Amino acid sequence: MFLQVDPAECCRVINQKDECSCPPMQKNQIILNSLIVYIVEVYSKLDDSTVTVRVDCEDLQAELNSTRDKLYKQFAEDTENNETIFYWIEDRSSLLLRSRFILYTYISDEGLTKVASWFAGENYKLLPGVTLEPLKMFFRIGTALAVPWTLPKLHPDTGEQLVNEEGQPLYEGYCIDLIEKLSEAMNFEYEIVTPKVGGFGKKLPNGTWDGVVGDLMVGETDIAVGALTMTAEREEVIDFVAPYFEQTGILIVIRKPIRKTSLFKFMTVLRTEVWLSIVAALVLTGFMIWLLEKYSPYSARNNPDAYPYPCREFTLKESFWFALTSFTPQGGGEAPKALSGRTLVAAYWLFVVLMLATFTANLAAFLTVERMQTPVSSLEQLARQSRINYTVVESSSVHQYFINMKFAEDTLYRVWKEITLNATSDQAQYRVWDYPIREQYGHILLAINASGPVPDAKTGFQQVNEHADADFAFIHDSAEIKYEVTRNCNLTEVGEVFAEQPYAIAVQQGSRLQEDISRALLELQKERFLEQMASKYWNETARQACPDADESEGITLESLGGVFIATLFGLGLAMITLAWEVLYYKRKEKTKIHTLDVKPKPKPFAQTKKNLEKLTGVVKLRKRDVAKTAKLGKDTVTIGDTFKPAKGVSYISVFPKNEYRP
């Protein structure tokens, strides 16, 4: 769209048709001649009695300027009908050419088209059937690459950055979506511009700025939209609009420590010397049970008549088995009968209960703490330790924060020392060496310089991911760290956010866009657009894809697989023992001497008679024994009686003593 003075203006001045030809070099002369003629005509209309001899346009005296006032009024009267080629402006006391203006615009289908025509001093008039829409404003918007704020839009197959029809690179991210929404609300077109030097901007020694702030400061861009924090240094050279993102700050990120899996993890709950002590206690207890059972006069072995039922015989093998099975919920079975043996077993059982409780509690705490532990939990702990190295992005706002804090520490120490040295009163109350001035940020900055600042955030996250032992940390913007943590299962946040500052859009100092953008942001907040954008890029559900996203997960097989291996080992050992028992039994059967069943020869009658007499005496004797035994109430078995198997007596059964009275 452009505005043009009617090229046929010269023809109208000389009272000719529009098709006349006015040479360009003669236009000014023709207009000047017409102006002189018009002034003479107007002056001649004045009353001669009121006209002075001369007119001084510069002199303000009333007697000399009455003619001037009358002349001005006459100009106003003659130009009211809009038919003259000149018109009068009373406020400016000027006589101007009544030019005809023509407005053209470009229409895609029709090309350059005339849409309006009007004379100077009038409002513009659109031609019949023509409607105009306001032109869209055009802004150059500066930004810097940052995840997830501004990212190059890549081709899904080739991975190369996409470009538009004009060959300009395309971007995507939170800020790009925000810019697109603002362009719709404010009706403007834009071009994304990235800085040629620097990132978001740092102050140079000569007082100038580079990066996004520098481009906005010198007018290379009109608006700056990105992960730009509001700082006092930047507000000296640019103006910030209302914040568009919630409070952000600085956060620490490290790699999750890789837990060393071991099938016999449960064995590490107790130290080796403790396990050896348990084995020694088991062996010693088994041996002492056998020793006490053997030499105690009140044991079941040495005094079997004192117990009316068969008791457990504590051999050396049985004693060790009792000591071993006492560690199980089933228990060791029947205990020794002697008081000395029972005293030993009671003390041993107390030892077993305490050891089992200690092992169970320590195993639960060991496996729980192992899942939840992190190397450090705050910036203070990170500064006090020396195992974990850490870094920041060079010349970033985070880097500048630690530089400023170190300067504050140095200034505080210097001022306090000067107060101490210059004090006229008792210097004991200003003892600088006793004041706990912490040089925390100075130590942090030294560690950062030792590790070396990284050029960008991508390099920082990559270095953290490469240190599988969690011995490297990256201090960066909290919003970017939270975004990366939701998409990388190996990373975890450490501590709380500190040094909180908001993100805001920036404009040039004194720009009228500040109020327009602020109103547009308020409308977007009412529409909850900013909340929708935050939930889009910081979606916590993306972390559910991580295999260990839930800290309350169960114990893995890698941690307790040794328990199953021990069970399988016992099963295998039992099968080997069974094979050995079978082989041993077969070999013993082969070496056993078998007797032949040979029928004896018939004996003489005399010998048979003697045998019968002896048998009769035995029967009488047995009858007497049976009668005697009946008094005792005991069952007897005689020759010829039907065989009845005796009832088995359990080792842990207790019979009433009144049933076994002699």
TrEMBL record:
Which residues pair up as cystines? C489-C546
SUPFAM superfamilies xref list: Periplasmic binding protein-like II, Voltage-gated potassium channels
Record's GO cellular component terms: plasma membrane
Q: Where in the cell is it found?
A: Cell membrane
List each copy of the Ionotropic glutamate receptor L-glutamate and glycine-binding domain by range: 148-218
Domain Ionotropic glutamate receptor C-terminal positions: 153-540
Q: Could you confirm whether the keyword Chaperone appears in this record?
A: no
Coiled-coil stretches noted in the UniProt entry, renumbered to this chain: none
Record site feature (Crucial to convey clamshell closure to channel opening), residues:
V376
- Which residues hold L-glutamate? T229, R234, S397, D477
The topology of this chain with respect to the membrane is:
Multi-pass membrane protein
Family indicated by similarity: Belongs to the glutamate-gated ion channel (TC 1.A.10.1) family.
In Swiss-Prot or TrEMBL terms, this protein is called Ionotropic receptor 8a
In which organism is this protein found?
A: Manduca sexta (Tobacco hawkmoth)
